[in-house]
Every structure is written in structure tokens, then in C-alpha cells.
Amino acid sequence: MINYTIKRIFEVIPVLLIVSIIVFSVMHLLPGDPTLLMLAGAEGGSIPQERLDELRIIMGLNKPLYEQYYNFVTNAISGDLGTSIRLRTPVTEILLQKFPYTIKLSLLGLMIAIFLGVLIGLVAALFKDTWLDHITMTFSLGFALLYKISDCSENFIKFNLLRNHCIAEPATKMLPS
Hints:
By secondary structure, the chain is mostly helical. Helix content is 71%, strand content 0%. α5 packs antiparallel against α6. The relative contact order is 0.06.
């Protein structure tokens, strides 16, 4: 059992490395300059190039990508997730502030899912091969498909993978912090 646990722990390391590379790459592939986003809300109007350069130095954006990635990983390991561009507060504080609500919502969803799963499973087991069994199976499969479709469509909308023509101009859209 200990060998299995150690093996699984070592398998997590490449996964975490790949995830960190993907997150770092996505952050750098997002359109717009983070310094412009930070200063546009605070100072408004035209921002002098010296001020942009100063903020790039503070944020470490003037360093090579490999050094930025190293700083990103070491800061994440130490618990420093950076500062929110929109709220201008540490991301760790924001996460800790929202964490109790996430736990409550997750536990409520888990309790509902367990209750419904046990109830539907009992009905299907008690009335095996009847119309009630077929309805519960269809109901369960329908919910599973509905969840998967809604999850995929949410990701399509979130990452603008569907080229929908909306009324809002790109300049009015907000980027995530």
C-alpha cells in the first residue's frame, strides 16, 4: 500500500508541472497588457510610458519568460498567488474570503446528489425491469448529459470558442482578474 501511495505521489508531479505550464501560457496568451489594465482603471486617460515600464518592472514582466515562469511556480508553491488586477488585493485573501461559501455550496450539492442518487438507485433496484426502472435510468442519463452539455457550453462561452455575434463591442467586455 505504501509503494502504491508513493507511486501515485510521484505521478502527481508531472501533472502539476503540465498544469502550471498551461496556466502560465494562458496568462501570457490573453489579449491586452496587464499593466494597461491595472492603470487604466486607476489613472484613466492616457498613461505615460514611464509609468507602464515602472509597473512592468514591479510585476516582473520585463524579465525573460523562463525567469517569469520560475517566479510564478516558486510564488505559487509558497502560497503567493499574486494580486488581482481588478480588485488590487492579494488573490490568496480573495480565495480565503470566498472559501467558506464554496465549502457550504459543495456540501449542499453533495448532500442533494447523494440523496437523489440513493433514492433513484433504490427505486431502480426495487422495480427492476419495469417502466419505473426505465424512467429512473432515463432520468439519470438525461441529467448526466445535461450536466456535460452545460459544462461544455459554459466553457465555449467563457473562452469565446463559439464565435457568437453579440451586441457588445470587445472594448466593453471584462477580462477575468
